[in-house]
Design a protein that fits this description.
The complex is a heterodimer. By secondary structure, chain A is an alpha/beta fold. Helix content of chain A is about 45%, strand content about 10%. In chain A, helix 12 packs across helix 13 and helix 14 packs across helix 15. Chain B has one domain: Rossmann fold (3-Layer(aba) Sandwich). Classes of the chains: A alpha/beta, B alpha/beta.
């Protein structure tokens, strides 16, 4: 574990940039210091479960120390000991048993599909675009709307796409970051084996989290992986998707950490929004690389913070209110849920809507279809 | 202290559609996911906590098919010492009594200070195996245990009673307790832990037939549809008003 940290010069840029350091006991510089000089204090709470694995610390470290890997190591030590918070245990057991962290059975994974349905891939079939929906949009009612919007948009693009239906299983991005490395490896092996049963041209995801792990952590995946924003942006440029209906709203874009900071996709989401007629796109003061994490990553969707201080999502929503926007747009199911919760807790429900980019695009594209009729 | 823990592999049926097969005596298990019976998981955790406090071994016992090794491995990953799986030829037709009889034989052979079981299984729901096993072993028992304190050769246990009451008993060891859920917070068995546990011993007892069934399942069936639910009509305010009236009428508000 110490080897990861040996480059550390204790400059404190990690803690300075850490979004949760302001609202929790997590002080990553101090934690590294204690590890390097081998202070053992097992009973103290260092707030390692507060980390959202947003990776601001690792990205800003001038010595290239992978601080997030150290947090994952610390968590994995707790996981192997077995005595973890009940929510952590239940989430991991759910992924092991049902292939998703939401405690829902596999048979219900494709229940979100509406109307005329979607092509579900069968073993041996060839497909140009595989849409990997992800656990949250498959089971969680608010984000199911995102998956439905995706299908509606894709159907207008006359693209050859399919989904995996109930065969789809958790990608493991959050599981790895919760420190359950054995389970992550199992998911990676199972998913890689499953993908090999088909002839896939390109896989794209709803979530930047699934995208991140497929793209960067599956060594034998064997085909291109993209986030939907890059695919859809290309479709718009190729005029396969034509946003025409006006969306007369002031919109700000929340950069998801796993899309922006960690995978350098900043332009495409903004280009999609820029191509929707009527949108006035504004920026947060802290945007792109400096974007404020929503606290949904690193397993934090299922692990409650110990802190009573204001949630970062609430801070973010208030910033958006100060900008006077009608809509906070994002491109991540976790951002969508945490920000929408924050809109409710800050009593801004009448003023601000939180939407996924694809939902805005679906409205615009569908208006076009309606106009044609 | 040497502890025996009896665990069962059960299907997860909370969300799944449960179908009865053509024999009308069993459910269709193909699509179901299995796990350790919930109450047994608490019994196992109680044994693990005791093992951490005092020295000793934990032996896991299960009656079930080969697949039941999964729950034994999970227990071994958490810290149990060894496991015994009993798979009789007539596994499909066992009742609570014969399951207890199968468990009693190997448990009798060793001198356990304590035998723990869950208080109920989430599939059959009989709550009989634990107490029958105590009878066959000739040791005292307490059911629905929600706290245990060991002092030398006896144990003080708290039991859950009806009407929100608790009962406290002092029982001489060796004894058997059926453990209620909520007594502790079961730990997590990591995948690497389960893989490593494959090196620990699981003794298999098979090629035997147990006799003396006392009960037989005649049939399984779906309950007849009950009275229709009352659907409240109207706008949000009207409906919530009506709901409040109903709840008040029943003394719930």
């Amino acid at each position: 574990m110490n080897e990861i940290l040996l480059g550390c010069i204790q400059c404190g840029k990690c803690t300075g940039g850490c979004p949760v350091s302001t609202r929790s006991t997590l002080n990553i510089r101090k934690l590294i210091y204690r590890s390097l000089i081998k202070i053992k204090d097992k009973n103290k709470d260092f707030g390692i479960w507060e980390c959202t694995t947003c990776s601001t610390c690792s990205i800003r470290c001038p010595k290239g120390v992978n601080v997030v890997d150290y947090i994952i190591d610390l968590r994995s030590y707790e996981i192997e000991g077995g005595k973890v918070q009940p929510q952590v245990r239940d989430t991991l057991e759910s992924v092991f048993k049902f292939g998703n962290p939401w405690g829902k059975i596999r048979e219900k994974r494709a229940d979100w599909i509406e109307g005329n349905g979607v092509n579900i891939l069968k073993p041996g079939e060839k497909i140009e675009f595989l849409y990997f929906v992800g656990c949250t949009p498959c089971y969680e009612t608010r984000t199911q709307e995102v998956a439905k919007a995706m299908v509606r948009v894709l159907k207008t693009a006359s693209s050859n796409f399919a989904i995996l239906g109930t065969q789809e299983t958790c990608c493991g991005n959050e599981i790895k970051r919760m420190g359950e490395l054995g389970l992550f490896e199992m998911l990676m092996e199972d998913n890689t084996k499953l993908f090999k049963e088909f002839d896939i041209g390109l896989l794209f995801t709803t979530s930047p989290h699934c995208y991140n792990t497929f793209k960067n952590e599956y060594p034998e995946i064997g085909f291109e992986v993209e986030h939907y924003t890059t695919v859809i942006n290309r479709f718009i440029k190729e005029q396969r998707i034509k946003p025409k209906g006006n969306f007369e709203k002031k919109v700000v874009f929340q950069d998801p950490c796993f899309l922006g900071k960690q995978n350098d996709i900043f332009e495409e989401p903004r280009e999609i929004l820029g191509n929707i007629p009527g949108i006035e796109l504004v920026e947060f003061e802290r945007s792109r690389e400096r974007s404020l994490c929503c606290e949904g990553g690193g397993g934090r969707m299922w692990v409650e913070s110990e802190s009573d201080a204001e949630r970062l999502a609430a801070t973010r929503v208030k910033d958006a209110a100060d900008l006077g926007v009608d809509v906070i747009a994002t491109a991540c199911p976790f951002c969508l849920l945490t920000l929408e919760d924050a809109v409710k807790t800050t009593n801004l429900e009448d003023k601000i809507r939180v939407m996924d980019i694809i939902e805005i695009l679906a409205e615009s594209v569908n208006l076009e279809t309606k106009n044609k009729d | 202290m040497n502890i025996a823990v009896c665990i069962k592999r059960v299907p997860e049926t909370a969300e799944a559609a449960v179908n009865i097969d053509s024999s009308e005596k069993r459910i269709v298990e193909d699509q179901l996911v299995f796990d350790i019976n919930e109450a047994d998981n608490y019994a196992l955790e109680e044994a693990l906590l005791l093992k951490e406090k005092t020295e000793g071994d934990i032996t896991l016992f299960t009656v079930g098919p080969k697949e039941a090794d999964e729950v034994i491995k999970m227990g071994l990953a958490k810290g149990a010492t060894c496991g015994v799986r009993i798979t009789p030829e007539n596994l499909d037709s066992l009742d609570s009594y014969t399951i207890a009889k199968l468990l009693a034989e190997p448990i009798k052979e060793e001198n356990f200070d304590l035998v723990l079981t869950g208080c109920i299984s989430s599939d059959a729901g009989n709550s009989q195996v634990g107490v029958t096993l105590a009878e066959l072993l000739g040791i005292p028992h307490a059911s629905l245990v929600i706290n245990m304190e060991i002092e030398d050769d006896s144990v003080t246990v708290q039991r859950e009673l009806e009407g929100g009451l608790l009962g406290e008993l002092k029982i001489k060891l060796p004894a058997l307790f059926t453990i209620q859920t909520g007594i502790n917070e079961p730990r997590y068995a990591s995948i690497l832990g389960i893989k490593r546990a494959a090196q620990k011993e699981i003794k298999v007892v098979e090629n035997i037939t147990v006799e003396g069934m006392k009960t037989e399942i005649v049939r399984m069936y779906y309950p007849p549809a009950g009275k229709m639910a009352e659907i409240l009509e109207g706008g949000v305010e009207e409906v919530s008003g009506k709901l409040c009236e109903i709840l008040k009428g029943k003394g719930l508000l």
